[in-house]
Design brief:
Helices cover 30% and strands 29% of the residues. The protein contains 18 helices and 34 strands.
Length: 802
């Protein structure tokens, strides 16, 4: 649009020094260079010379540069302004100022008005007419890129590029298309550029939708893939700009946010350039969770490896000048994974969001992160620049360690609470309905309101869209504070070019309402009592019942407190004397009444059984006698549980279907009691069979115990705890070996190893038994060695630091 003039500031840079003498300071202050300025292209004009002083007090000298690109052809042009010492030109340029000018190509100028018909002339003069598409021919040579620079309209948001091929005597061509919408800003190129490998056949057409920045210059670069077909090709390209007016001139639109308490989010769309097709579609595809570090530790690095050496100037000032120490900060993050439904694994992507996609402009020296499971096995690692691959995690606990390094300890201290982002894809996308009115969106579509149908927005028109929150239930592992992310595509036929980011803040889970008490029995009692007693007697009976309930609840509370203390002793690995003193006293007493269908006496027996299963044998006991001692401890405790449970009643109950909806209070309490007794029955049968399995000699009682166990435990999922599932696998493995079926025993162990959760207490024991089976029973030494290597990786003995 005409010549451009701008100023350039020149500041002298002096060699770094820790200290300077008075003579050196005087020499620097007296600097005065006569410089000759010479542009390398005629379209650049500068002053003939300038004087460069030390300018400590003035901040440097300036000179002006004038650019006149009116005579330049379309394309990219380069020139430089070189400054040479006028007193000593042989020194060469002291500095060089690079200048790049891009002239957009003049593409398909409109025909003169005199050549148009009256109807065409009226259309051309109509200011509301859509701008014409830009078309230009292309001749592509093998391995030679062809660039076109195109001015983008101010309101454009994306461009439709159409490539049409003609006759191809030498066969089809592979064409690489690379589009850069803007060279300004610090947006990563992967977030804005478009790359496509297109297969062009004879007389065919390929369409590419690509984002652009309004008011910028779009660079289109196309090149033949000479490996496929090096023969030249001639194409016709057409570029048509589109816009909904929803993103503005930004490359990335602001996120459409649906708050946790909101029912919808509003988007305004229009058609500033031409009539646009409107077919909105919104969906959420992933959940994002922010974690705070559970711990942070700042330490100085190695005195030999983590010290920046002093500069040459510092060494000249002092030969023993120290280097600069690099400090490290280790941040620890913890999280749990609980896949929902039939999914056994949950993909997770870890990212330090505030440092992501930064390299030279990063505030830190370096950044590394590592993902470990509860066993300490490293599952994934990454850095700040790029995302690592998603890691599929089983149910369990995990930790992420982040290492940050910087010479300034204060900089690391400022990042002690640095959040970590976890991105977890949803099992399937969640649809968000898009309505055309606020009322319909507020009602969630009820009352006959339908979603926005496919249609058109005329040029200059306007349309309000309301994106509603998802109507389907959120996954159970999504918690309050998580953000569900996805996109809103204004034209689902062109998602990549018309989609806008969408975010939904997960609200708190619905409050579970307490079930209303079933007073049918009380009403019947009241009718009976009312028939026999007067009103005063009924009040006395009610008061007596309430007093008895208070006594029973007090007894239950005291029993629960003692039971809780008993569990604390077991978890603290207290001595058998301390544990048995309290347990025997409680077993000698009568248990309190049922608590909403739950038997506290059964809970006591299960607690004692748990202690017997993990109690430490006496120190003087020989290793050969430990299995027998363990069986003597566990069998009586297991039999006590089995004697308290009516197995026939439990079997009869679960042999029939029971409707939970509309059931009475008594029926619900009975169902709770049956479920509790079945779990206890399974656990007792497993404990008895597991104790007998450890005996060195196979006995008939072990086979009988396993047979009874299989009647109630048909698969590992029938047990709740991971430790019990491992015990089941070990028990069935030894049973199969006793029946001389090593293949079946191996199948049991491999099936358990495939679904083990990280952190299971007996997980390593299952792996070691598998190694023994390979080596000692099957004679597969190579398989045993491979299994041992896998165990070393899964259960690392030494954890290497980051």
């Amino acid at each position: 649009q005409g010549p451009l003039t701008f100023g350039v500031l020149v500041q002298p840079l002096f060699e770094h020094a820790a200290t300077r003498t008075a003579a050196e300071v005087e020499e620097l202050l007296s600097l005065e260079l006569q410089l000759q300025l010479g542009p390398t292209a005629p379209w650049v004009t500068t002053p003939a010379s300038m004087v460069l002083l030390s300018a400590k007090e003035r901040g440097g000298q300036t000179f002006t540069v004038r650019l006149d690109p009116s005579t330049l052809p379309p394309g990219a042009h380069f020139a430089a302004v070189q400054a040479v010492d006028a007193t000593d030109p042989a020194r060469g340029p002291l500095f060089s100022l690079p200048i790049t000018v891009v002239i957009p190509h003049a593409i398909s100028p409109p025909p003169p008005l005199g050549a148009l018909t009256p109807a065409q002339l009226e259309t051309a003069r109509d200011e509301t007419a859509a701008p014409p598409a830009l078309s230009f021919p292309l001749t592509l040579q093998g391995g030679v890129p062809v660039r076109r620079f195109i001015s983008v309209p101010e309101s454009a948001e994306w461009a439709k590029v159409t490539l049409r091929s003609g006759r191809m005597a030498n066969g089809p061509h592979a064409v690489l298309l690379h589009a850069v919408p803007s060279a300004r800003g610090d947006l990563p190129n992967t977030a804005c550029q478009t790359k496509r490998m297109l297969q062009l056949r004879e007389l065919s057409e390929e369409v590419v939708q690509l984002p652009v920045r309004g008011g910028a210059t779009l660079e289109l670069c196309m090149q033949l893939s000479w490996l496929a077909n090096p023969a030249p090709a001639t194409l016709d390209a057409e570029v048509e700009f589109h816009s909904y007016g929803a993103r503005g001139r930004a490359m990335h639109a602001p996120t459409t946010r649906i708050g946790g308490a909101d029912a919808f989010a509003r988007i305004e769309v229009g058609a500033p350039l031409r009539t646009e097709r409107l077919a909105p579609e919104a969906e959420l595809t992933a959940a994002e969770r922010a974690l705070r570090p559970s711990s942070s530790t700042i330490t100085a690095g190695s005195a030999e490896l983590d010290v920046l050496p002093p500069s040459d100037a510092e060494l000249r000032a002092a030969a023993d000048a120290p280097g600069e120490q690099i400090h490290s900060m280790l941040l620890q993050y913890s999280f749990d994974v609980a896949p929902e439904g039939d999914a056994k694994e949950q993909p997770v992507l870890a990212r330090v969001q505030s440092l992501h996609e930064q390299l030279y402009d990063a505030p830190l020296d370096s950044m590394l992160w590592r993902l470990d499971d509860a066993n300490g096995q490293t599952l994934q690692y990454g850095g700040a620049m790029h995302d690592a691959a998603e890691t599929k995690l089983k149910k369990g606990s995990y930790s992420v360690s982040v290492l940050l390094r910087h010479p300034d300890r204060a900089q690391l201290t400022a990042l002690k609470e640095l959040p970590l982002l976890l991105r977890m894809p949803l099992p399937k996308p969640m649809d968000c309905v898009v309505h055309g009115g606020r009322g319909a969106a507020s009602k969630g579509g009820h009352g006959g309101h339908e979603a926005v149908a496919e249609g058109w927005v005329r040029r200059g028109g306007h349309k309000d869209l309301y994106v509603c929150k998802p109507t389907t239930e959120l996954p159970k592992w999504v918690s309050a504070g998580d953000v569900l992310t996805g996109h809103v595509a204004l034209d689902k036929g062109s998602k990549e070019a018309t989609k806008l980011p969408l975010a939904f803040e997960a609200p708190p889970a619905p409050v579970k309402k307490a079930e209303a008490a079933d007073d049918d029995g009380d009403e019947e009692d009241a009718e009976v009592v009312g028939a026999a007693l007067d009103e005063e007697a009924m009040a006395c009976a009610k008061e007596a019942r309430l007093v008895q309930e208070d006594v029973d609840e007090l007894e239950r509370s005291v029993f629960r407190a003692r039971l809780q203390r008993l569990g604390a002793l077991r978890k603290a690995a207290s001595s058998a004397e301390r544990y048995n003193a309290l347990a025997d006293a409680m077993l000698a007493e009568s248990p309190p009444p049922l608590d909403k269908g739950k038997s506290l006496g059964l809970e006591l027996l299960l607690e004692v059984l748990a202690f017997r299963r993990q109690a430490k044998p006496p120190a003087a006991l020989a290793e050969a006698d430990m299995a027998g001692w363990r069986a003597e401890q566990v069998q009586p405790a297991a039999e006590a549980v089995l004697d308290l449970i009516d197995a026939d009643e439990v079997s009869t109950h679960f042999g029939r279907t029971h409707e939970s909806e509309g059931a009475s209070k008594a029926a619900k309490e009975h169902a709770t009691m049956m479920d509790e007794q079945r779990s206890a029955l399974r656990l007792a049968l497993l404990a008895r069979a597991s104790a007998l399995a450890s005996l060195p000699v196979e006995s008939e009682s072990f086979s009988t115990a396993v047979a009874e166990l299989k009647q109630w435990v048909d698969k590992p999922d029938a047990l709740k705890e991971e430790e019990d599932k491992d015990a089941l696998a070990l028990t069935l493995m030894r049973h199969e070996l006793a029946r001389s079926r090593p293949g079946a025993a191996l199948k049991v162990l491999r099936a358990r190893l495939a679904v083990q959760e990280p952190g299971a207490k007996r997980a390593k024991e299952v792996g070691k038994e598998c190694v023994k089976l390979y080596r000692d029973v099957l004679g597969l030494e190579l398989w045993a060695s491979n299994m041992e290597e896998a165990l070393f990786a899964k259960f690392p003995v030494v954890k290497l630091p980051l």
